[in-house]
Amino acid sequence: MTAPDASPAPAPAPAAPARRADVVTLSRVSSFLLLAALVLGNVALGAVKVRFDLTEDRIYTLSASSRKVVRGLSDPAQIRVYWGDKVPTKQALVKLRVEGLLDEYESASDGRLKVTWVDMSGSEGKADASEKGVPEVQFQIFGASELTATKDYQGLWIQYEGQTSVFGPLSEVDRDQAFQITSDLEYRITSSLWQMSRRAKPVVGLVKDAPAMPMFMDRGGGDRFSFLGGERVLGGAYKDGLKSWLNLDDPVPDDVTVLVVAAPRQWSDKKAYHLEQFVLRGGKALLLLDAVDVSTLEGRPPSKSGLEDWLKSFGVDLPDGVLADFSEPAMGALYSQDSLFPYPYFVNLLGANMDRDVPALRGLPNVMTFWPTEVLVDAKGQEAAGRKWTPLATTTEKGWRKPDTTGLNLAGVAAEGKTLAKHVVIGMLAGKFTSYWKGKPAPDEPPPPPPKPPEPGMGDDAAMGDAAMGDAATGDAAAMDGAAMDGDASMGEPPAGKPPEPPPAPAMEPEPAMNPEPAMGGAGMGEAPTGPKGPEGEGGDEGPPKSTRRDEGLGVIVIVGDGGLAGNEAAGGIMAFNGRGTGFALVANLVDWLTGDEDVLALRARSAKNRRFEEVGESKATQIRWANYLTAPILVSLVGFVVFFVRRHRR
Amino acid sequence: MRDVFAVFRKEMKVYLVSPIPYLLAAVFTAFATYQVFENAYFLLLRQANLDGFFNALPLMLILVVPALAMRLWSEELRGGTFETLLTFPVRTRHLVLGKWLAAWVVIAFCLAATSGLAITAATLGDLDGGPAVGGYLGAWLMGGAFLAAGLWMSSLTGNQIVAFLLTAVVCLAFTLVEGLAEKVEAGAFTAFLERISITSHFRAIGRGVVDLRDIAYFVSFIAFFLYLNVETVENRRCA
Fold first, then answer.
1. Which of A232, A421, A426, A621 has a Cα at 20 to 30 A from A437?
2. Closest Cβ–Cβ partner in B16, B117, B200 for A628
3. Which residues in chain B touch residue A611, judged by CB atoms under 8 angstroms apart?
4. For residue A628, how many other CB atoms are within 10 A of its CB?
5. A334-343: pLDDT as tens digits
6. Complex ipTM, two decimals?
7. A35 pLDDT more than 60
C-alpha cells in the first residue's frame, strides 16, 4: 500500500507588492491628472477678467472718462499692439498690465473697439510695425558678466475713421529701476481716441521767442529757453491742432483757442497787443514767465518779458526778486562743489497747496519750480473790475520773497529773521478785460490819416475817423487802486476834438464748453465782441475801413511765475533730480483744462502719488525704530502669557 | 467639515500652549523691522509705503514657513503617533486640511504682528491702503502656498531637518523661477515660467489689484500640494 498523498500545498499569500504598486500608480496618475486639470483651469480662467482695484485713486482701473470716450465712439476703432519678442522678460508684468488695460478698453466699448496683438515672431509683424511708424525701442539686458543691448518694437497703433495715431514705448523705469507701464498710457490712448472722434477740435498755439538751449546744456538760463518737450507732449494730445512756434509779430490765428506763451523775452508792444487781442476775443492764454534762471545765479539780471506793464494794467504785479520755501518737503536740492545741498529757491509746489477743485490740478502730486517769481494780485480790486482772481498754487506757509536776485548761489540760506508766509506762484485771471491800448493807437495799426478839413456847414460833431475811442479806461481803474499795484497812468489821452459816441457793446453770448467753472464766478465767457466800428458819417459805406480791434472782451489769463518748470532742462540734469519733468504735466493739464476737455484731463495724473513724508528728527527716528523693534515682540509675548495663564486657570 | 474643524481645533490648542507661534511671530517681526529700517532705509527715503517689507517677504517666508511646517507630520512619524492618528475616524483629507488651516492661522498671526510697520507708515505719511492690503493678502496666500508644499515635504520623512530643507528648496525654486525667466531668451517658455512664478503673482496682488487669476493660481498651488499630501499619507496608511 502506498502512503496517502500529502495534503495539498497551501494557497500562496496574496501578492502584497503588486497591490501596493497599484495604489502608488493610481496615486501618481491621479496627481498628474489633478495637475493637468488645475493648469487647464488656470488657462481657462485667463479669459475671465474679474479684478478689484484697491488703490486709493484706482490707478489700475480704466477711469470713467475713458469709458465715456470709448462708449461715445460712433464708428469702429482698432488698436494694434506691437510687442517685439526681443523685449526683455523683465517687462512681463508691464505686458500683463497693458493686456489688462486694453481688455478693459474693449469691454467698455461694447464692441466698438477691437484690440489685436500683432504676432512679432516673424518678419511680417516687424514690417507692419515699421510701416505704421511704431517706434523701435532699445533695451539693455544685464547678463551675468556682460551688458547687451537689443532693439525691438514696442508701441500701439490706433485707427479711427481713417485717422491714425502711433506711440510708444509702453514702459518706463521707476525710481527703483524697475519697469512699469508708462504712467500716462491710459491718457494717451483715450486722448488719441478723443482727438480722432471729436467733431470740434480745439487749436492750441505755442509761442516761444527765446532760442533753444544748446543740446547738452542741462541747466537752462539766459536768453535761451527750450520747450521742445512741452511741444512733444502737447503735440501728442492735439496733433494737427497744435500750432507751434507762432510769432506774435502777427495776430494770433483766429482758430487758436488756447495760447501757451513760454518764457517771453523783451516783448515789444506789438506782440503784447496781439496777445491782448487774442484774450479779448475770448482766448485763453497760459503765460510761463521765466524772469529768474541759472544765469541770474551767475550774476546776470533777471530777464524782462515785456509784459510787465501790460499785466500791471490788469492789476497783476510781478515783483522783483525770487521766491523761496523753507519747508522741508517743498525745498529742492542744488548740486554745487561736488555736493548736494538743500536749496530753498527751488520751490516744490505741493499738492496740498494747489487748488484741488481745479481739474487741471486734481491728482497732480506736486510740481517743482526753479527760482519762481511771485504773482501778486489784489483779488478785491479784480472783482470791482469784473474779473475773478483764483490762486492756483502757492508756496507753503514758510515761503519767502527775496527782494533781489543777488547771492542765489550761496548755500546755507536759513529762514531765521525772515517773514514767512504763503506766496502765489500760479494764478488765473478770468472775466472782463479792457484793452491796455484803449484810446491809443494800436501798436500794429498804421497811423490814422490826417482829418479831412470840415466842409462848410458840417457841425463839430462830425465823424472824425475810425476806431480810436478816446474814453479812458473805466473798469480797470478800480483794479488799479489795490495796494500792490501802480495806478494805471499809462492810458493815452483821448484824441483831439469831440470824440464820436461809442457804439453800444454787443451782447455777450455764453460759451458752452467751460464747465464746471467755480473759478469763473458769475462771469460767463462769451464770444468777444467785435471791435468798435468807426462811425459811418454822412458817407455811410463810403466811410473809412472798419477795424477788428477790440477794446474789451472776456478772456482768461493763467500766469505761472516760472517757465523753467516746463523747460527741457527740467526733465534732464540737475533739475530733473528735483522735478522729473512734472512741469510738463502741469502745462499739459492746464492746456487741457483751458480747452474745456475735462474728460481727457481727468486721465493725466494717473501714476502712483509720491507719498514722501516729512523728515523725522534723529531722536524721533530712534524712538520709531525701537518702538517697532520692541512693541510687536512684547505684545506677542504678552498674548502668549495671557493664553498660558488662562488655560492654566481653566484646568 | 466638522471633522476638519475638529482637527483644526486640536491643532490650534497645541499651538496656543506651545511657544512656537509666539517665537516665530517675534522673530518674523524683528526680521521685518530690520529689513524695513536698515535695508530699505525707510526713514531716509521717507516713502509712506511697505515696499521694503514686501520685497523681502518671499525670502522671509522661505525661512519661517519650513520651520512651521517641518514638525507637522515629521513629529507624528518620529514620535509614533502617526499610526494612532490614522486610526481616528477622520478622513485623511480632513486631517490634512485641518493641519494646514491651523498652521495658516499661525502665519496670519505672524503677518499681523508686523502691522506695526503699516501703522508707522500711515502715521508718518499718506499710506495707500490698497497696496498694503493687497500686499498682506498676497503674503498670506503665498505663506499658505509654501505651507502646503511644506506639509507635503513633512509627510515624506520623519526627519524634521530634512523636511525643513526640502521645503525651503521647493519654495526657493518657485521664487527663483522668475529670475530664471529673465536669463533665457524671451518666448513661450519664459512666458510659462512667468506664469508659474509665485513671486510674480504675489507682486501682482501686492500692487493693490486683486485679480481672480492670481487668486486662482494660489488656490491651485495649495490644492495640488495638499492633494499630494493626502496621497502620501494614504500610501503610508496602505503600506
1. A426
2. B117
3. 47-49, 125-128
4. 22
5. 776 677 788 8
6. 0.84
7. yes
